[in-house]
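queue> holo job accepted (zinc ion)
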Amino acid sequence: MMQKIAKDHPDQDITLRWSPGHEGVHGNEEADKQAKMAASGKQHNSCRSALPTFLRHGSLPLSISALKQAHHKDTHARWSRMWAESPRYTRLHQLDPLILKRSFIKLTTKFSKRLTGLLLSLRTRHVPLNLHLHRLGKSDSPRCPYCPTIDETVHHFLFDCSQYQRERHILACALGRQATSLPYLLAEAEATPHLTRYVNATRRFKPTFGEILMPALEPD
Ligand SMILES: [Zn+2]
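queue> job finished
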């Protein structure tokens, strides 16, 4: 870049100098904190006589970004209070206390609705496998279609069913011992593409979810 600028503007003399940033400098950090508090309108500002002349009359200008930040914080606090009082909160909390934690929301932010739905289903056990379908009256039996004496649970589908040995082997090759950890498979971003591949390969959820687009694998 420097070479290009020098080539395009041979008549100009350019010098680069390094200068320290604000981070870690106590005075700068403190000034930044005070400025943000004042800009949000939540802190008493200096008395008017101590302000520069042009700021002594009328109300002080507020920072749009600080106002947005404060609004976002208030909205989130209000949402948290309303949600905690909702009748659905207790029920969902019993199913999976971690489901509405920030980590799960962060995990699924960039996922498709279909993939997020799959993860929610697996975590809450409200999943199109026979044990749950039977409870809903949508399957004649709670048993696994391939293992006539065993209920088709999430655990059986992921870890035990002999029908999916090949798919499970591929999962184990990718994730090692972690492939047998349900919390890991359902909550860790690096596991999701492999879990998605497993679910797609078994074709067990295809009638409900169709083919689920895999999230990109993180580079090594
Ligand atoms: Zn089975």
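queue> Residues 21 and 47 are 31 Å apart (CA to CA).
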